[in-house]
Design a protein that fits this description.
Blueprint: E1 3-7, H1 12-24, E2 29-34, E3 54-58, H2 64-74, E4 78-81, H3 88-93, H4 96-115, E5 120-126, H5 152-171, E6 175-180, E7 183-184, H6 193-202, E8 207-210, E9 216-218, E10 220-221, H7 222-235, E11 241-244, E12 249-251, H8 252-263, E13 270-273, H9 288-294, H10 302-315, H11 317-325, H12 331-336
Parallel strand pairs: 1-2, 1-4, 2-3, 4-5, 5-6, 6-11, 7-10, 8-13
Antiparallel strand pairs: 9-12
Helix pairs in contact: 1-7, 2-4, 4-5, 6-8
The structure holds nicotinamide-adenine-dinucleotide and 2'deoxy-thymidine-5'-diphospho-alpha-D-glucose.
Length: 339
């Protein structure tokens, strides 16, 4: 039986990963370790909180003693590190916590993995470590593209990637790094482009488009990202880095157009606002390596993915309203106070 420690498993991608593993790999024990920052939401996993193969533990990845205790107690054989501060805008207004969690936190997990001889460390990184592409360029990011991060968020993620490689080189920690493009899908916190625009449009609020709105992202449905991470965990040789992309390059205005059309809302809701400082113009992923070597490919195209995503938000208004009111942050106490 596999026994995995998933950090950040109450966040957007982490909770989708936990759900996928519990549903599709019943022989796997999932220990879900999350600090429950503003981005962590246990309501993402309501139906799995009493699942026999899922154990949730609240804690900080910077707490080395607790991480080591968990590894020992649960005989963990792999760590999948999703935990992070993940929002670029927040890294511009307050970079420090990005260094604490994304750099010091990753270092702490690596020390524990090394000292406890954890068999595999899968680190979830991002295409943003490569920097920005020009709109008119044909090029995409490959695994050989040198890191050139532009925001405090991407700089902290690139620093963590270097640490992971250094622990592999110096102490033979068996690692993989994945670098994915922009994810979308159910349970994404409504501060990121797609859920923010859905939520605002549903409430008749303005849609704040940064600058000219012609920035390009390569959209990947979250389930496909999770399936790729599982492949990396179970099939990749140690020391390999994999780009994961959706082959779905869209401008922000194109994405917003689809959302407004589907919700039957007017384009007059769009409001161009001051641009994000240092805004990366375009991200595009060359995912050939994982496609060739691990036989993975995205299964959900943009049209299907965005429709599924909009449907999910329409069907889960309570989830959205609990986030808006802050009630989602009371859920942990309610669920765990008597345990
Ligand atoms: P998220 O912000 O939704 O979730 C992050 C989770 O980490 C939350 O549950 C939060 O409570 C937890 N966390 C934060 N600090 C912690 C700490 N110190 N200790 C323990 N837990 C902590 O993020 P996401 O969008 O799900 O992203 C997950 C990972 O994937 C991140 O590493 C991110 O850099 C990477 N990534 C995200 C995307 C994307 O489009 N969202 C794309 C590529 C890579
Ligand atoms: O590429 C992977 C990265 O994608 C991940 O590593 C990050 O964790 C994730 O947050 C995401 O970063 P982006 O900055 O690309 O995502 P965000 O949803 O914040 O913004 C997407 C685009 O939309 C970007 O060009 C900025 C723009 N935008 C965003 C918001 C929140 C707007 O125009 N208005 C907005 O209100």
């Amino acid at each position: 039986m596999r026994r995995i420690l998933v950090t950040g498993g109450a966040g957007f991608i982490g909770s989708n990963f936990v759900r996928m593993v519990l549903a599709e790999h019943p022989d796997c024990l999932v220990v879900n370790f999350d600090k429950l920052t503003y981005a962590g939401n246990l309501e993402n996993l309501t139906e799995f909180l009493n699942h026999p193969k899922h154990k949730f533990i609240k804690g900080d990845i910077c707490d080395g003693a607790l991480v080591e205790k968990i590894i020992d107690e649960h005989r963990i054989d792999a760590i999948i590190n999703f935990a992070a501060e993940s929002h670029v805008d927040r890294s511009i207004t307050g970079p420090k916590v990005f260094i604490e969690t994304n750099v010091t936190g990753t270092l702490t997990l690596l020390e524990a993995a090394r000292d406890k001889k954890v068999a595999r460390f899968v680190h979830i990184s991002t295409d943003e470590v490569y920097g920005s592409l020009a709109l008119e360029e044909d090029a995409k990011f490959t695994e050989q593209t040198p890191p050139s991060p532009n925001s405090p968020y991407s700089a902290s993620k690139a620093a963590a990637d270097h640490l992971v490689k250094a622990f592999g080189h110096t102490w033979d920690v068996k690692y993989n790094i994945t670098r994915s493009s922009n994810n979308y899908g159910p349970y994404q916190f409504p501060e990121k482009l797609i859920p923010l625009m859905i939520n605002n449009a549903l409430n008749g609020k303005e849609l704040p488009v940064y600058g000219d709105g012609l920035y390009v992202r390569d959209w990947l449905y979250v389930y496909d990202h999770c399936a790729a991470v599982w492949k990396v965990l179970t099939e990749a040789p140690p020391g390999e880095v994999y780009n994961i992309g959706g082959c779905n390059e869209k401008t922000n205005l194109e994405v917003i157009d689809v959302i407004l059309g589907r919700l039957g809302k007017p384009k007059s809701l769009i409001k161009h606002v001051t641009d994000r400082p240092g805004h990366d113009r375009r991200y595009a992923i060359d995912a050939d390596k994982i496609i060739q070597d691990l036989d993975w490919k995205p299964s959900v195209g943009f049209e299907e993915g965005i429709n599924k995503t909009i449907d999910w938000y329409l069907q889960n208004e309570k989830w959205l309203s609990n986030v808006a009111s802050g009630d989602y942050q009371k859920y942990y106490e309610q669920m765990y106070k008597n345990r």
